[in-house]
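Fold sample X.
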Amino acid sequence: MFGGMLGAGNKDSQQPAAPAQPGGFGMGGQPSYQNPQAQMAAVEQEMDVISDFFERLKDSCNAKCIINKYPDGELTKGESVCLDRCVSKYFQVNKEATDVLTKLSQLQQR
């Protein structure tokens, strides 16, 4: 999810693992890590994308599901169910949009 910099495989392998494609939050494209600074910049960019995604998710679901009056310190059953469904739908829509954009990008590259 974070660019695959740690690699995978068995411990006996002397070959460094090739970097994986950046995660499923819309970054896309094949990374070309040429040096540690480029790797760090790619990781920082992906973290920014993930942070932005989480902030938008939080703001959207909070506005939709949490009432502005706080009679209790805990979420009500309705709020909890609403948040669960909201987060699930948000991830589903994001995945579907990412899939469509990836397919469009692949068609344009041909």
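Fold sample Y, listed below.
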Amino acid sequence: MAYLDFIKNYLPRLSKARGCTEEEIIQLEQKHQLRLPAAYKEYLRLFGKNTGGLLEGFYTTIDEVEQNAATIEFDMVNTEHSHQFKIAPGMFFFGQWQGTVLYFICDGNENPPVYMVESLDDIVQYTNTFTDFVRAEGL
């Protein structure tokens, strides 16, 4: 663990956590036609199938990723907004919290900033890195 070293001491409390295999991560990358950042892949290896309570309620497991993108797509069609927000290549919607969708951009940055879509007209950079997001919201 390089990006999530700070979690080591908490792993005993997250005993139900279950990670993804390398093959599952590769399949996710292929499905979305992008290269996921190293920090996020590290997260998937540890918590991709069951978070064990880390980021509880954030819909961050590999099975929930499709739901996150679908939420944005639904909102783009079914809500009033200025239409300035567009889903761009490389955007990966990895989680959500009470209707707020979280994403990062797969652009070669191995620990990218996390952005929060509160509404399609209100997008903010939430944390400077994916690691910062896990540290702030996960523990």
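Sample Y note: The chain has one domain: 5-138.
Also: The two ends are 17 Å apart (CA to CA).
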